Amino acid sequence: MDTYLETERLALRHFTADDADLLIELDSDPAVMRYLTGGEPTPPEVVRESYLPNIIAGYEKWHGQLGLFAAQEKDGGAFIGWFILRPEREGPLDEVELGYRLRRAAWGKGYATEGSRALLDRAFTELGVRMVWAETMSVNHGSRNIMEKLRMRLADTIPTPPDMAMVEGAEHGGVRYEITKEQWEQR
Q1: Per-residue DSSP letters for 20-42?
Q2: Nearest Cα to 132, choosing from 147, 143, 144?
Q3: CA 138 to CA 143: how far, in whole Å?
Q4: What DSSP character marks residue 160?
Q5: Which residue among 10, 12, 70, 147 is buried most deeply as judged by most CB within 10 Å?
Q6: DSSP 130-143
Q7: Cα-based distances in Å from 5 to 31, 67, 93, 124
Q8: Strands of 3-6's sheet in order across
Q9: What is the pTM of this model?
């Protein structure tokens, strides 16, 4: 395993072409997809033909330093989901998105906070990032709590994208949290 980042309990690595089934399983759980698609699974062919090739292409684009990273437990190697640290498609490299999608079995164990904290630290100490942002549905209190534990600040409310209008709580829109390098250093 080519490890990108390690925490006390997690190892993050680049996805490979052999990981399609892990992503398909993750995106097939209605609870995992609740605030993304209203619980609808991502079709396997979309994962194989679009998502995974785009994830892998991102490593080349960002020299392996930014992208979507598979997360595994260090003890036993179980796949628990993924973390993201990357700019918008044509956005500046010093403003990146932080996010995660974890299997239900990994919820409530502090993994999202642990992995996110390590990614923030790498972003601000090694990658020259100036600002990190994260977005979620207003009603997704679990993700909002994690952003607040990371000392990210509520920066804005955002409208629900049209393709998410069917998601529970869509009428409440979303929220954007941010943290700058200076704020991270003052924590």
Answers
A1: HHHHHHHTT-TTTTHHHHTTPPP
A2: 147
A3: 9
A4: P
A5: 147
A6: -EEEEEEETT-HHH
A7: 27, 12, 19, 14
A8: 3-6, 10-14, 67-73, 79-86, 95-102, 131-137, 174-180, 153-158
A9: 0.95
Q: Answer whether 95's CB lies under 8 Å from 130's CB.
A: yes
- C-alpha distances out from residue 41 to 1, 44, 53, 70, 140, Å: 28, 9, 19, 19, 18
Coil, helix or strand at residue 178: strand
- What tens-digit pLDDT sequence spans the chain (187 residues)? 689 999 999 999 999 999 999 999 999 999 999 999 999 999 999 999 999 999 999 999 999 999 999 999 999 999 999 999 999 988 999 999 999 999 999 999 999 999 999 999 999 999 999 999 999 999 999 999 999 999 999 999 999 999 899 898 999 999 999 999 999 999 8
- Residue that is written with structure tokens 């954007």 in the block: 176
Measuring CA to CA, how many Å separate 174 from each of 18, 101, 155, 165? Answer: 34, 17, 11, 11
The label of the residue with tokens 């609870």 reads 31
Neighbouring CB atoms inside 10 A of 130's CB total: 14
Predicted pLDDT at 94: 97
Structure token digits, residue 169: 């709580």
